[in-house]
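To assess whether ligand presence alters the predicted conformation, the chain was also submitted together with acetyl coenzyme *A. Input:
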Amino acid sequence: MSLIRSVILGCGGYLPENVLTNEDLAKIVDTSDEWIYSRTGIRQRHIVAEGEMTSDLGTKAALQALERAGVEGPDIDLILLATSTPDNTFPATAVTIQANIGAHQGVAFDLQAVCSGFVFGLATADNFLKSGQFKRALVIGAETFSRILDWEDRNTCVLFGDGAGAVVLEAQKLNSSADDRGILLTELRSDGRHRDKLYVDGGPSSTGTVGHLRMHGREVFRHAVTNISEVINRTLELSGYSADQIDWFVPHQANKRILDGTARKIGLDPEKIVMTVDKHANTSAASIPLALNTALEDGRLKEGNLVLMEAMGGGFTWGSALIKY
Ligand code: ACO
């Protein structure tokens, strides 16, 4: 057996210093810690400082991932930034990060799949690496959702936060199935019929403004549990693994109730869910690498562990990635 796998060499994360608690929010809109926590599991979120941009967050997470991977900017030949909150309409925020980390070769571009962006980024990088076109990739999820929230809308402003996470992937040739590691399988889905259930009401070619996030919360909730369960079941079926063989479930952190509902539906032990939504809220494309980083830093996640990631977001988009760490 000889196959190429995309192996994670290092992971990094960054959260802005400023913390906004549910109690702080209750001074801005008509809400309470009790309401927010009981419906979402969120206690607090991090918010960028004035002048702090998505590229700043992404650069910090990327530099930490590079250091932990033992590589430097020039060793990277593909940079994929998953974000819905770029610094500017163009150029891609990925090229700013490319310049900041000194990766002056290869290619850098942004990828937009909202909360599913990191999983879409992993799948895209994996296919480039497996094809032999690139050797090392940096996949980053970085968001400043605080800039697109309507801070007068209690239905949405309580749910999101800012942050960034990143992984360095390397194409490695494996000679025996006993050594198998890296990204084993990815599954991606989109269904544009639901694009009006979670969206931003502005953009360069429609209103000429940045716009604000709008959401039909109940509809999103209903589709989330169904779609995520479907894609996970398909991933397990194709890979030959069962739910009880998963060591860690590292999902997109939107809402504790969505994660508990999904775990119940697929028969996964709730103890195996890496949950960071209480401290970070929903950081969209950044939430999976931030959760991964948390589980690596606290020592829960170890080499050889089987890790299942999943996400769903606006579009709708959704997907999963199964990884042997
Ligand atoms: N504080 C207090 N009351 C509130 C708040 C708030 N922050 N927000 C809404 N309410 C009120 C509503 O106005 C409503 O009041 P009314 O009955 O007088 O009209 C009441 O609370 C109930 O509102 P519902 O929308 O029915 O509340 P629900 O139990 O459905 O919870 C929630 C809302 C938390 C948004 C839920 O629908 C949800 O989690 N949806 C998924 C949304 C999500 O996770 N989106 C993230 C992006 S997508 C993704 O990443 C998967």
